[in-house]
Amino acid sequence: MRFPAYVAPSRRPLACVLDAEVVASWVVPQHFTVYTSAVQFRVPSVSVLVPVTWVYELAEVFRGALASGGTTDARIARLLGTLAMLPFFTDDGSEHALTETLRVARAHAIPVWRATYLELAVRTQLPLATESADLSRAATASGVPLFTP
After folding, report:
1. Pair 31, 25: CB distance under 8 Å
2. Closest Cα partner for 18 from 81, 86, 88?
3. Which residues have a Cβ under 8 Å from the Cβ of 123 and sit 6 or more positions away?
């Protein structure tokens, strides 16, 4: 699956930077929450922005969930079909990885792969859709609003 590079959308406004773990919860029932459900129903009507590492993180969550019996190939296939039709845009923020993203990770004591979401939200001035406690705390400390579906 390939998402287009970010270009200012013409029809739907960019609504948020979307954490892969929110999307992964859509196929891993034990991680599904009221919040992730609300995001799932809101996403088709808006555009979302994800870091370039997003697809790899999603694939890793799927791999772990399949190995533990937390989801099925059929659920993942259905989600991939749905995602292919949704307005996702990928930001290649690699030029920020060794500078701004690293600074964010160090400042908030979070892993670099998590900091990619926060750096992207700060840079684009978009709210962040996440259920990660450490990422939520870092976003709040940085003045980044959390996405309200």
Report:
1. yes
2. 88
3. 93, 96, 100
Helix (H/G/I), strand (E/B), else coil: 109: coil
Question: Hey, what are 40's tokens?
Answer: 């799932």
Task: Supply the pLDDT for residue 24.
Answer: 93
What's the DSSP call for residue 132? -
Per-residue pLDDT at 122: 94
Cβ burial of 45 (10 Å; 0-12, 13-18, 19+) is: exposed
52-94 confidence digits (pLDDT tens): 889 999 999 999 999 999 999 999 999 999 988 888 898 887 7
Give Dmax (Cα) for the chain: 41
Let me know: does 18 contact 146? Beta carbons within 8 Å.
no
What is the CATH number assigned to the segment(s) 14-142?
3.40.50.1010
Backbone angles phi, psi at 118, to 5 degrees: -70, -45
Token output for 32: 């599904």
